[in-house]
Amino acid sequence: MGSMSFLLPGSLSAAAAAGLGEACVAGAGFHDRTPGPTVVSIADGVLTLSRDEDESGYLIVPWPVAPFGSLAIISSTLRERAEPYRLLVELARGKVNQVRTQAAEWHDIGLHTTPEFDRGVVEVGRQFGRALLAPTPEESDSLSTHVLEHAHSLADRLTRDYTRQMLATREKAEGRLDTRLAARHLCAPQRAAAAEYGRAFNAAAVGLRWRDIEAAEAQYDWTETDSAIASAQAMGLPVTLGPVIDLAPGMMPPWAAGWAADLPTLAACMCDFLETALNRYKGDVRRWVVCAGFNQGEGLGLSDDDRLRLAYRLFEAAAQVDSGLELVLSVAQPWGEYRAGGAQTISPLAFPDDLLRAGVRLSGVELEIRPGVRPRGGQPRDLLDTARLLDVFGMLGLPLEVVLSAPACEGTDRRAADQHQTAWASTVPTPEGQAEWGASFAALSLCWPQVRSVTWDHWIDAEPHLVPHGGLLDATGRPRPLLARLRALRNAHLAPEV
Q1: Cα angle at 71 between 396 and 19, to 5 degrees?
Q2: Do 384 and 158 touch, CB atoms closer than 8 A?
Q3: I want to staple 468 with a disulfide (CB 3.0 to 4.6 A). Which of 53, 203, 359, 413 is the partner?
Q4: Which positions make up the signal peptide (predicted)?
């Protein structure tokens, strides 16, 4: 059994202390840097991470970084050794290394950075040298904190420069982009809201809740889905439907959830619902998100292999209904935080790859990016880490679809609580914070050539949803600031029809 230990700073803020229990180690051999099972212990100012593997790896730990809030930060590769590392030194080293490496790679493909940025990269390297050679631990931690903040500021500037220049380059070569931009909804927006939707988006994403549609076995109510699809068609918007089967808590009807751990019966129930939905709407909808949360879901008493086999069955059933449909797999927690607990072993990247190797015809992979929400969401990451994530999943050779969501305020959200989702952001969420985060991550996703759609999940808080207070409209139907930001992105960069 291997372990790594880290000296904690003498003065530990409440926000920093709160994240230590979620520290983990990713093996150096994994390109996607997903963590492995990790046991965390804290004693006498030392954080110790233990795991079965006895090899080098990356430390991943949530840590507050001004002014960005708490972010999951990854170190450079560390070897196991008896002497503890200084935590802040290694976090600073990892971010400085990431910024310098990514800047060099993007320079090679034509990115232009400002002289101010270039001077900042040189200066942050000098600052790190001073932190590394500081005469006292206290001074080293103080300097490392400053380096970490400076490096994150440079990372943010670098990624925003890349986003802006990539959008300009693509538009010069392709004209306005045909990427779909949508917000997921369960039923048709009201007349005024529908007009607002049409101004902001060039596509529709219609969600399904199995528990509502088939509340009693073999008794279906498609009223809301019918109205949502009809509304999208009236606006001339292409439709993506789904996820049809979602393993998030509260999404399955109670009668079907009663078959937990009975894989054959559960598969039969899910395939029957999927086939019924496909046959009803295949003439109107050609792109379907077949299933979501299968790589991460812990419910229903299913093992990793069970969920993989179940996903295989669903895609095979869908292909038999109509081989010409576009069938998408949705991946939850794409950075793989769920693997740190040890109960699940298949990484987010390996799950679709395993299906492809088994012969499943996937037309795309959807990545859920939901910071600050449990249990479906993950730890917040910055723009540069998200750019790397898109690059990693691009290795699958499939089109990518990105689903974004984030809370806009605090407090209990009954519609999200129905699905056992809670917000845990280290900073108080605000509508303005949601707008800045959502617009920035949407722009990054839109600039990426392999991303063919960006969806905000969800449209309005009055409908059932996963992310507390995450709608573009609040529960009363009042627009939040993010809606105007997304409308501006659509008007600036996207084709009116796709």
Answers
A1: 115
A2: yes
A3: 413
A4: 1-16
CA 134, distance to chain mean position in Å, is 38
Residue type, 208: L
If one counts every other C-beta atom within 10 angstroms of the C-beta of residue 96, the result is 23
- Kindly report whether the global pTM for this prediction surpasses the value 0.90: yes
CA-based diameter of the chain, in Å? 73
Q: H-helix or E-strand containing 77?
A: strand 69-78
Q: How far apart are CA 312 and CA 176, in angstroms?
A: 36
- Tens of pLDDT, residues 197-230: 999 999 999 999 999 999 999 999 999 999 999 9
Do strands 326-331 and 364-369 pair parallel, antiparallel, or not at all (unpaired)?
parallel
CB 338 within 8 A of CB 35: no
Distance CA(86)–CA(413), nearest Å, equals 40
Q: What are residue 401's phi and psi, to 5 degrees? A: -125, 135
Poorest-pLDDT segment among 179-188, 356-365, 369-378, 399-408 = 369-378
The tens digit of pLDDT for each residue in 403-438 reads 999 999 888 887 776 666 666 656 778 999 999 999
Looking at this protein, which amino acid is placed at residue 71? L
Tokens representing residue 253 in the block: 């009807």
Coil/strand/helix, residue 369: strand
Can you give the three-state secondary structure of 2-22, one letter per residue? EEEEEECCCCCCHHHHHHHHH
The pLDDT tens digits of the residues spanning 2-39 come to 899 999 999 899 889 989 999 999 987 667 789 989 99
Nearest residue to 98 (alpha-carbon basis) of 390, 392, 384: 384
- What residue ranges define each of the domains in the chain, with the CATH number in brackets? 2-167 (no CATH), 177-493 (3.20.20.80)
Task: Report the b/e string of 161-193 with b at 16+ CB within 10 A.
Answer: bbbebbbeebeeeeebbebbbbbbbbbbbeeeb
Long-range CB pairs of 350-358, under 8 A, 24+ apart, other chains included? 351/294, 351/295, 351/308, 351/311, 352/396, 352/398, 353/396, 354/308, 355/308, 355/311, 355/312, 355/315, 355/329, 356/396, 358/312
Edge-first strand listing for the sheet containing 69-78: 24-27, 57-65, 69-78
The structure tokens listed for 194 are 């529908």
